[in-house]
Specification:
heterotrimer; A mainly alpha (about 400); B alpha+beta (about 400); C alpha+beta (about 200); B: about 400 residues; three-stranded antiparallel beta sheet; 16 helices; about 50% helix; about 15% strand; C: 7 helices; 8 strands
């Protein structure tokens, strides 16, 4: 019974496909999964927009939208109607084909990443051996769409905004990849299903998730920072916040195309959080061994929504970093920490089991973090100050 | 002639920063920031010339909110100008009223009873608190924190505005001070409620401090940005928290001791660097000092009348003469210069707006900084367009 | 440690987030128009003319002295004096306003008209939901729209109205006493003459 609950979607797919002749079953099964993903994640996106507005509102001591539907949960329908009925303006001098293709490309590449994410036990669309590599290839392709948007608008300010956004995304690709390399080092495989299965063991009821190891914790933190920068979320959202000078790469878009950009950004957030969950938080495995009766896909989506909540929390609290500070941070702080993390992961692997490797690895990471942190702050002469009073 | 050459003459002997030398060929990018601003300071325009990301030249353009305040005042009686002063610095109407009442009382030689002075101090310090809280909130909002500190500041401001409404009848446009005292007396119930609100303000200031002051991103964005040197600040006539953040000890409450400020124990915080972070912290520290003054005033307020018996509401004709009355408004030195010719209307009525005078150094603070910081520096000056344009 | 300030800030916001579900201090929204905050007693919006008794024309306290018109800063009051007189609450014959218009789109709620009125005739109302789509006169209130009874005044500003009623009652007592004194003196004079 528990097994059935867990595999309910797999069984459902199997049953639906069985109505077709045998030659078509394989293709139909894949198409069905694709259709599910394409319907599910936009629905989740709609829900997330409401959660974001209500979450930010509650942080700011006010109610969010609460007029449309119960507790405001039909607000995305109102937003969708609004964006669909707006006039679609394409600038006269803009490159029309590229202008049209940019949001389309963004959405397509972002959805491709879902093909390799294991959303539950046996619930991965394509079980590639190099799943992680495929994912990052698709993720990097989405940056092309951003640049296409800025270029085709034929607007000086949009182009500047697009270039800033692309520079930011490229700078943070390196820490993103480096922090996932440690996972590959320890697991020994690029396949996401194998990574999850490696974390699905329990000792004294506690799981073997990689976040509970020193190198995994550090890797997760850096992955989280790189993710926030990749998806242009606060505090790294200078390219899309109401920049004083530069208008952002999606200025010249209105109506549905703008909604597509918005959708692309949020679905990218889901996809990259999904990957982070898979790599560090154990994917679909349960947190305690006595909770394994809960279906695996529930765990995956709960962890995903938890990450989204943390994104919203950070957006509500933190001010923005300036562009050059953001890049400084990536190259001079996060990247060296990633390299130290690689070293530590190597040490972990070759030190063998026991408490010694925990102590050594944690010590190295803490020292590196504290040292580099202090160094950065002191170099820029930043720090809390005390004030004198007049006599 | 390059920009650097044309501006050389102006820079001699003025303690102003050296002009930026442009490297190589290329043209400057000229941008007009405003008047439709993403930040909420009002209708204001800055014509900025950029070399890449650095600011080479900045010209503020204001006057979009000019409402002829001074000319209108020449055509109506002294009392009728009082509601108009509410609308100058519309975030702090009480202190505007107070400065005007002070000027007229100087002109007419009017005395103010003690209870009225205490009420003025209480309301003035409440105004200062909510102005500094809102100013910090707006500054962080411009930094991009989606308005969270702003909402917290406004939550506290609502409590203070409720007190104002209960006493004077209006939340913002209070029209409360009169020449010779205050318009209405405060009931004991109001004083109790004020004590309760003030008791909650300390906790809020601590929360605000914890939320913001050690935030690394805030420090990275504001420390070392927009430095104003003390000599330049004094030469340009800058007053208020901006001046004190540059390290100059000048607080009109201590210097003039107007009203009964001599009786209160409070300290004047001074900054050392003169950057945006210092201005933010000085405002936070002044909020704490205001709470101290409020607690003292609420303890010591005597009973008595709130209007001087010699005060006249109608038919007020001060003798010929002139007077300049100034106070330490939350934004700086707010002064009113009045010339009377013996008639019911003033002959000349002039407002010294602190926001305008503080704005004159905006270009000097912004030269050479990143364009993303211009909005921050502008926010740290803390202006209200109603005062700048009158 | 790098990151400590950020974590402290995030703890603050989390406290506010969870607090907004439980404590009223952290969720101060009042959902207008379903819930309204009762206005304070001193709240002032636009002026109205007070009348005693049931008939608004006979009981109106305003004697068209035009002091409020002169003192109003934005000059939003327009008064036309009547040609005849009517008796006021003390029995004396007074002028009354044939026209008393206030343009509430100009009025800035400064309350100076209330302060300078010697006859307690104009007071501040608390009603603010007065928006209209009539551009040419919807916000110009004439004396019929402005006239509201003393009961209404007592309802919206109880303490202030009590003070005003006491003052007017004292004036009436003084006027009655003076009238009685004058009447008695007249009778005594006639009796003295007759005697």
């Amino acid at each position: 019974m528990i097994e059935n609950c867990d595999q309910i979607f797999v069984l459902l797919r199997h049953w639906l496909v069985s109505f077709l002749p045998a030659a078509w079953q394989q293709t139909a099964g894949v198409l069905l999964s694709v259709a599910t993903i394409v319907c599910l994640f936009p629905a989740l996106f709609a829900l997330t927009t409401v959660f974001e507005r209500k979450g930010l509102a509650r942080i700011q001591n006010r109610l969010g939208p609460n007029r449309v539907g119960p507790f405001g949960f039909f607000q995305p329908i109102a937003d969708a109607i609004k964006s669909l009925t707006k006039e679609d303006i394409v600038p006269l001098s803009a490159d029309a084909a590229v202008h049209f293709l940019a949001p389309v490309l963004l959405v397509i590449t972002v959805f491709m990443g879902f093909a390799v994410l294991p959303m539950g036990r046996n619930m991965v669309l394509v079980d590639l051996d190099a799943g992680l590599l495929f994912y990052f290839a698709m993720g990097a392709s989405s940056e092309l769409a951003v640049f296409m948007a800025g270029w085709s608008s034929r607007n000086k300010y949009s182009l500047l905004g697009a270039m800033r956004a692309v520079a930011q995304m490229i700078s943070y690709e390196v820490p993103l990849l480096m922090s996932s390399v440690v996972v590959v080092m320890i697991t020994g495989s690029l396949s996401l299903t194998k990574i999850v299965e490696a974390q699905n063991h329990y000792t004294w009821g506690l799981p073997h998730w990689y976040i509970f190891t020193p190198w995994g914790f550090a890797g997760f933190l850096m992955y989280a920072i790189a993710t926030t920068a990749e998806t242009n979320r606060s505090p790294f959202d200078l390219p899309e916040g109401e920049s004083e000078l530069v208008a952002g790469y999606h200025t010249e878009y209105s109506g549905f195309k703008f909604a597509l950009f918005f959708l692309g950004e949020y679905v990218a957030m889901f996809s990259i959080s999904g990957l982070g969950t898979t790599l560090f938080l154990g994917g679909w495995s349960a947190p305690f061994s006595f909770l394994t009766w809960v279906p695996s896909w529930i765990w995956f989506f709960s962890k995903l929504m938890l990450s989204i909540f943390v994104f919203i929390w950070m957006r509500g609290t933190l001010p923005r970093l300036r562009q050059d500070q953001l890049m400084n941070f990536a190259w001079k702080f996060v990247l060296p920490m990633c390299l130290v993390n690689l070293l530590v992961a190597g040490l972990w692997r070759f030190m063998g089991d026991g408490w010694l490797r925990w102590v050594v690895c944690s010590a190295i990471l803490l020292l590196a973090y504290a040292g580099m942190g202090l160094g950065e702050m002191r170099k820029q002469r930043l720090g809390p100050r005390s004030y004198r009073y007049a006599e | 002639m390059s920009i650097a050459e044309t501006n050389t003459e102006k820079f001699e002997g003025w303690n102003r920063p050296a002009p930026i030398k442009l490297e190589g060929e290329g043209e400057l990018l000229e941008v007009a920031m405003g008047p439709h601003h993403p930040s909420t300071h009002g209708v204001f325009r800055m014509d900025v010339a950029l070399d890449g990301e650095r600011v080479i030249r900045l010209r503020p353009v204001f006057g979009y909110l000019h409402r002829n305040h001074e000319k209108i005042a020449e055509g109506q009686s002294y009392l009728a100008s009082m509601p108009y002063t509410d609308r100058l610095d519309y975030i702090c109407p009480i202190t505007n009223n107070w400065a005007y009442a002070l000027a007229v009382e100087k002109l007419a030689g009017q005395e103010v009873p003690e209870r009225a002075e205490y009420l003025r101090v209480i309301l003035g310090e409440l105004t200062r608190y909510q102005n500094h809280a809102s100013s910090i909130g707006f500054l962080i909002q411009e930094m991009g924190a989606t308005g969270t500190p702003l909402m917290y500041a406004f939550r506290e401001r609502e409590k203070i505005l409720d007190l104002f409404e209960e006493l004077t009848g209006a939340r913002m446009m209070v029209n409360y001070m009169r020449f010779g005292g205050c318009r209405v007396d405060a009931s004991p119930g109001w004083l109790d409620r004020t004590r309760k609100v003030v008791a909650g303000l300390t906790k809020f200031t601590d929360e605000f401090d914890r939320l913001l002051s050690t935030n690394e991103i805030l420090m990275a964005r504001t420390q070392g940005v927009g430095v104003l040197r003390p000599e330049l600040a004094v030469n340009a006539g800058v007053t208020g928290p901006m001046l004190r953040a540059s390290g100059v000890n000048y607080d009109i409450r201590k210097v003039d001791g107007y009203g009964i400020y001599n009786r209160f124990n409070f300290r004047v915080p001074l900054g050392d660097h003169g950057d945006v972070y210092d201005r933010y912290m000085i405002r936070l520290l002044e909020m704490r000092e205001s709470i101290g003054i409020l607690q003292q005033a609420l303890r010591e307020i005597p009973v008595g009348p709130v209007m001087s018996p010699t005060a006249r509401i109608r038919g007020f004709r001060p003798k010929r003469g002139e007077a300049y009355g100034r106070i330490e408004a939350p934004k700086g030195e707010l002064g009113f210069y009045l010339i009377s010719d013996g008639g019911p209307n003033p002959y000349r009525y002039r407002v010294r707006p602190p926001s305008l005078i503080n704005l004159t150094v905006l270009e000097d603070m912004c030269l050479g900084v990143n364009v993303a910081d211009v909005v921050l520096i502008f926010g740290s000056v803390d202006i209200v367009l109603g005062e700048v344009d009158r | 440690m790098l990151g400590e300030g950020i974590l402290k800030g995030m703890a603050e916001t989390a406290k506010n987030f969870f607090g907004s579900y439980f404590s009223a201090a952290r969720m101060t929204t009042v959902e207008y128009p379903e819930h309204r905050i009762a206005p304070y007693e001193a709240a002032r919006v636009f002026p109205f003319l007070v009348f005693d008794g049931k008939d608004w024309q006979a009981g109106m306290r305003c004697v068209a002295c035009q002091i409020c018109e002169k003192e109003c800063p934005p000059k939003c009051i327009f008064i036309e004096k009547s040609k005849d007189k009517k008796p006021d609450a003390l029995g004396k014959l007074q002028f009354y306003p044939a026209r008393f218009d206030i343009d509430i789109s100009v009025c800035m709620s400064c309350q100076i008209c209330v302060e300078v009125c010697p006859f307690e005739a104009i007071k501040m109302d608390t009603e603010f939901e007065l928006s209209t789509d009539d551009r040419f006169g919807g916000l110009l209130l004439d004396r019929k729209q402005l006239a509201k009874s003393n009961q209404y005044y007592r309802k919206i500003h109880p303490a202030e109205a009590a003070g005003v009623d006491a003052k007017l009652a004292a004036e009436k007592v003084k006027a009655d006493a003076k009238a009685k004194f004058t009447a008695e003196a007249k009778i005594a004079a006639i009796a003295g003459e007759g005697a």
